[in-house]
Design goal:
Blueprint (H helix, E strand, L loop, with lengths): L3 E2 L2 E2 L5 H9 L3 E9 L3 H8 L5 H4 L3 E8 L9 E7 L5 E12 L3 E7 L6 E11 L2 E10 L3 H24 L9
Antiparallel strand pairs: 1-2, 3-9, 4-5, 5-6, 6-7, 7-8, 8-9
Helix pairs in contact: 2-4
Amino acid sequence: MAPRYGGVPLGIGAPEVRCQAMMSAMLRHEFDFEAPHSAARLWAILHDYDRWTEWSTMVDRVDVLWPGDADHNGRLRRVFYRLPDGQTGSSLELVTEAVANQGHTYTMISRDGNDHVGHVRLEPLGPDRTVVHFDEEADLDPGVYAFINRHNEAHLRAASDYLTAHPDYRPDLA
């Protein structure tokens, strides 16, 4: 018989993982907006880490620690960002399930195993219209998570605004 927690089967081989998930209050944030750009241009700017500081006010820099494949699968990046108190924070993020011009999953890897998983999905509506879908789950203080959510939304909108202000950025992908 499989181990149980409160009468619920925990699964074989990893009861501590299932148990931890059951006892935590995971927060979820979902966000969608329509961008007046092709999915290909949005994909390009979202993966052009050298330019993130040009359009994302919170980001100080992004270091690519491992490039991953051509679609960015397996890419390991460290994002340095500004905190409200003026200090710099960082997150170690692994990009997976990446499909060019369609979306990717990222995992913010934490020291204590409390990893956060998010998805960015691009849904083309026409030649220069794309819905950007974002979702993320995290086990954090709700106030801290609200701050992060505001900046995640601003980050994605800023990418679209950058493309609007810079029609010369990857016009071949329009």
